[in-house]
Structure formats: structure tokens, C-alpha cells
């Protein structure tokens, strides 16, 4: 990048259910926290990037960039609303980084949010499904869980992954979320409770065989926000700026069946390789990672295709607690999408927030001790549009 | 009976489904329709219980199939149970409702072998 970009402030709403508040109101709440955290005072914000996938369909509001700028009194700052499916948040952060790196902007605000819980399950499932291939997938009744399930079955068939591995991702991420006050789900779960007990069939029903309820992220309301600036001026605002050391983005075929190897997340591979190359770092240098575990299988597959583990061995690392808090590479200390929740447009921004807190040593009970370098991966569609970041603490 | 068609690039020979404006491999615009054939193999599948609005059948069986020429497609499977590797054939029928209107397309059903 032409100039380095720093994260100088971040904020989130609690993820969960926000009845009685509008999407704009929760975006304002997260933004004010980030602005306050960044201590930018009266300094002009040059641009605002808002990410949301379904604000028009679910909240009857579009062009949220303009609305947020107006609420925050940031005029005449440039404002955008960015929609890129579940990768909307990562896209907004990336575009904000480009604006700062190019010298076009010095100080920018990125806020992602979604309000989804007030809509019925089959309606939200359908709306989310509109991102898949219109004629080769959508009209057949395909949903994101259905694509994830077909991916899982093939992956199990090839690599010997068992349902216990999927359950372990959920158990680990639920346990991590207990230490995250912003997480949607604060519910410890056990393998007996979700797989072996008599009631498991009722409490953890099949959503898309072999995936069960506890393999899928919840439907969540929430917003997350970050303030970015040119690294050269970051010290004016904060003592502990976090540097965006690398980022990468890549796409893959829209229809999953067209991929040469449908169990390979090629866009994750390419995006992460680009991010590591820019950062001049390797996966082995990372102290933690936030991955896009919209489904438990995705944490395992992304941990491989991001370059942390060889293909087909991600579940072994999970089994050996390498990816647990206290392990060599904690994955999703925040609870991930699985338990922090997945307000679609907020997720990519929330990943940057978690990385920043971790790198500043402010992650409380889920702090990865001494974390200096961290990675995240925001996964759009079913892997057709992926954005990866490498963040580092500046000493 | 309607035949399920894929596409072939006249320039580089790449075969694919569904249609793309340009060849996914070489970018050529010279594409022709090809018959995908009557037999395909099930690569992976799911029984979907949480169906979207517009789908009435629960569970909905969905799968990815591979034709003999290597081209793959996704679709509904008309059966109670299936297994990876099963031989299926395309069959035309109603799929779901979109904005209240029924949309039709190809689904896949097990090939019934004639008893000899
Ligand atoms: Zn070609």
C-alpha cells in the first residue's frame, strides 16, 4: 500500500436482539463507541463506509451511508453504503483502507450492521439465499446451509471428518463467547447435550443433513464500527494503534458445483496468500485468527485454506486443542459467527474489532496472551468472495 | 421431452453448466449448446429441513451430480433416500415458487433399471 493504515478506534453494540431500535440506531451506537475510542475530538472525518446486506429488504431503509453521516453530524464527509453479501463488512474495511492508503482520505469511519431477528425464519432464509446462483442454485431451493451441508458431506467422505469434530467447533466457540460480553449466545454446550443425549435430536435438530442447528450461526442483530487513519498520524489519537499490515481479496465461481474441487475454498487461499504477502508474514507468524464460521465446517476448511494447516488436517488441529484458547493458534476467541453471532453486514467489521482488542491486550477473559499478529477472513456467498486481513500491533 | 443442455467453448473445448457470457477458461464468446446426456452420478447431497419461503416440500433433497463428460449441476433429487455414487437422470418438473409463481426446471431421479 502507498501508505500504512492504522486502526485507532473500535466499538460494537451487543450482538443479539435489538427490539425497539432501528438498524440506523444500532449503527449510531457502534459508531459513537468507535469515535469515542479513537479520541478524534472535533477532527473532520473524510469518509464513512457503511456495510449492510439487507437493510432495504429488512429495515426498509437504503443509502445508509447518508443517513449515518447525518446522524453523526459528519457532513460534508463522503458516504457510501456497501453491499457484498456476508463479505460486506470486510469490503467496507478494505475500501476504507484503500481510501487512506491512496492519500485520498486521512481519517475514515467504517460501520457495519444488520437487523434480522424480527423476520420469520423461512423469509430470512430465502432472502439470504438470493446471493447464490440465480438459475443454477436459487430456483432449486438452495440455501446457504444446504450448500454448507453438501460441502460437509463431501469433506467427510474425503477426509474422515466426523460429526464430533463439527460439534467441537461449536462447543469451543460457545465457550469462548462466554468470555465475550458482546456475544449473542452465552450458553455453554456439551457433546452429550448436542449429540449423544436423548433430547439431542430435539434440542439440536437437523437443518441440512448432516448439519444440525448447533452447526449453524444464529440470526443476529448488531453493529460494529472502526475508525481508520493514516498510520503516520495515528499517534496523535492513540498510544496503541494497530496496523493493517496486509489485506487480500479474491473471488471464485458463483455456482459451487463449477469448482474443480468443491471442497477447496480457492478464494480463501488466494485472499490469504495476498494478505500474508503484503504483510511480509506467514500463517505460522499469527498469534490468533478470526474465521468466518457461519457453519462449523467452515472454521475447519478456512483454517486449512488460509494456510494454517494442510488440507484435510484442520480437524486434527481442532482435536488436539491447537485452536482452543490457550492453544498455539486460538481460532475465534470472540466466539466467532457461531456464538458471537452473525449480523451479516457487521461481521467483517466485528472481526477487525476483535483483532484490534486482542492486539491491544484489551480482550478480557478471552485475551490471547502477548498477541502481536492476527488474521481474519470474511467469507462472502459460499466462498465466492473472500477478504482476508493481517493486523499487527505496532510497538 | 426436454433435454438438459450445457455449453461448450468452440475455441478451447471447455464444457460447463450453467451458461456464462464468456468461456470461464479462455474468455471466448463462441459457445454452443451441448446435450448433457441422460445419466449422471451423485457427488454429494443434503436433506434440507429448514427450507426457504417458496419451497413446500420438507425435507427437500438436493444434490450435486456429475455427467459423463465431467460437467456438473445442482438440483433437487426425486427420491426418499440416496447415496453418493447413485446413478440419476434429469427430469423436468416444478421446483419452487418465486414471488408466488411456480418455477420449473430439471431435477434428478434414480434411474430405474429394467429387470431382465
Ligand atoms: Zn474457452
Describe this structure in words.
The complex is a heterodimer of chains A (395) and B (116). With 395 residues, chain A is of the alpha/beta class. Chain A has a domain at 5-119 and 219-236: Thiolase/Chalcone synthase (Peroxisomal Thiolase, Chain A, domain 1), CATH 3.40.47.10. In chain A, 36% of the residues lie in helices and 18% in strands. In chain A, strand 10 and strand 11 form a beta hairpin. In chain A, helix 1 (23-38) crosses helix 3 and helix 7 packs across helix 11 (296-305). In chain A, 62% of the residues are buried. The model of chain A has no long low-confidence stretch (mean pLDDT 97). In chain B, 0% of the residues lie in helices and 48% in strands. Chain B has one domain (5-110): OB fold (Dihydrolipoamide Acetyltransferase, E2P), CATH 2.40.50. Chain B is globular. With 116 residues, chain B is mainly beta. Chains A and B meet through helix 5, helix 6 and strand 5 of A and strand 4, strand 5, strand 6, strand 7 and strand 8 of B. The structure holds zinc ion (ZN).
Amino acid at each position: 500500500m502507498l501508505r500504512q493504515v492504522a486502526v485507532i478506534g473500535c466499538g460494537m453494540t451487543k450482538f443479539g436482539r435489538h427490539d425497539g431500535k432501528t438498524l440506523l440506531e444500532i449503527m449510531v451506537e457502534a459508531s459513537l463507541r468507535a469515535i469515542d475510542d479513537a479520541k478524534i475530538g472535533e477532527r473532520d472525518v473524510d469518509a464513512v463506509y457503511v456495510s449492510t446486506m439487507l437493510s432495504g429488504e429488512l429495515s426498509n431503509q437504503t443509502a445508509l451511508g447518508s443517513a449515518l453521516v447525518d446522524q453523526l453530524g459528519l457532513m460534508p464527509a463522503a458516504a457510501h453504503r456497501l453491499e457484498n453479501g456476508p463479505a460486506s463488512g470486510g469490503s467496507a474495511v478494505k475500501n476504507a483502507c484503500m481510501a487512506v492508503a491512496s492519500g485520498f482520505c486521512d481519517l475514515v469511519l467504517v460501520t457495519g450492521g444488520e437487523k434480522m431477528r424480527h423476520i420469520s425464519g423461512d423469509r430470512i432464509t430465502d432472502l439470504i439465499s438470493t446471493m447464490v446462483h440465480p438459475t443454477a442454485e436459487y430456483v432449486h431451493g438452495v440455501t446457504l446451509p444446504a450448500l454448507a451441508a453438501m460441502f460437509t458431506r463431501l469433506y467427510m467422505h474425503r477426509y474422515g471428518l466426523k460429526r464430533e469434530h463439527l460439534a467441537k467447533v461449536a462447543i469451543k466457540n460457545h465457550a469462548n463467547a462466554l468470555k465475550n460480553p458482546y456475544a449473542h449466545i452465552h450458553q455453554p454446550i456439551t457433546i452429550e447435550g448436542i449429540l449423544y443425549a436423548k433430547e439431542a435430536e430435539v434440542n439440536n435438530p437437523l437443518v441440512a443433513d448432516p448439519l444440525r442447528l448447533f452447526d449453524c450461526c444464529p440470526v443476529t442483530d448488531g453493529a460494529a464500527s472502526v475508525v481508520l487513519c493514516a498510520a503516520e498520524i495515528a499517534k496523535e489519537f492513540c498510544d496503541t494503534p494497530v496496523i493493517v499490515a496486509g489485506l487480500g481479496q479474491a473471488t471464485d465461481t458463483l455456482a459451487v458445483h463449477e469448482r474443480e474441487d468443491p471442497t477447496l475454498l480457492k478464494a480463501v487461499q488466494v485472499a490469504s496468500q495476498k494478505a500474508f504477502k503484503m504483510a511480509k508474514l506467514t500463517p505460522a507468524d499469527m498469534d490468533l485468527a478470526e474465521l468466518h464460521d457461519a457453519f462449523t465446517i467452515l472454521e475447519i476448511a478456512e483454517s486449512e485454506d488460509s494456510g494454517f494447516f494442510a488440507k484435510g488436517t484442520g480437524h486434527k488441529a481442532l482435536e488436539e486443542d491447537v485452536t482452543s484458547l490457550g492453544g498455539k493458534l486460538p481460532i475465534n476467541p470472540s466466539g466467532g459467527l457461531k456464538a458471537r453471532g452473525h449480523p451479516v453486514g457487521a461481521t467483517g467489521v466485528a472481526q477487525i474489532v476483535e483483532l484490534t482488542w486482542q492486539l491491544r491486550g484489551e480482550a478480557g477473559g478471552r485475551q490471547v496472551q502477548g498477541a502481536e499478529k492476527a488474521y481474519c477472513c470474511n467469507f462472502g456467498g459460499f466462498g465466492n468472495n473472500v477478504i482476508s486481513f493481517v493486523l499487527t500491533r505496532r510497538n | 421431452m426436454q433435454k438438459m443442455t450445457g455449453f461448450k467453448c468452440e475455441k478451447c473445448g471447455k464444457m460447463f453448466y450453467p451458461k456464462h457470457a464468456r468461456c470461464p477458461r479462455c474468455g471466448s464468446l463462441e459457445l454452443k449448446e451441448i446435450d448433457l446426456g441422460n445419466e449422471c452420478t451423485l457427488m454429494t447431497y443434503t436433506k434440507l429441513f429448514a427450507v426457504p419461503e417458496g419451497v413446500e416440500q420438507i425435507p427437500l433433497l438436493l444434490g450435486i451430480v456429475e455427467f459423463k463428460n465431467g460437467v456438473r449441476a445442482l438440483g433437487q433429487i426425486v427420491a426418499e433416500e440416496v447415496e453418493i455414487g447413485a446413478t440419476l437422470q434429469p427430469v423436468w418438473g416444478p421446483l419452487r415458487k418465486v414471488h408466488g409463481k411456480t418455477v420449473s426446471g430439471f431435477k434428478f431421479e434414480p434411474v430405474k433399471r429394467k429387470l431382465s
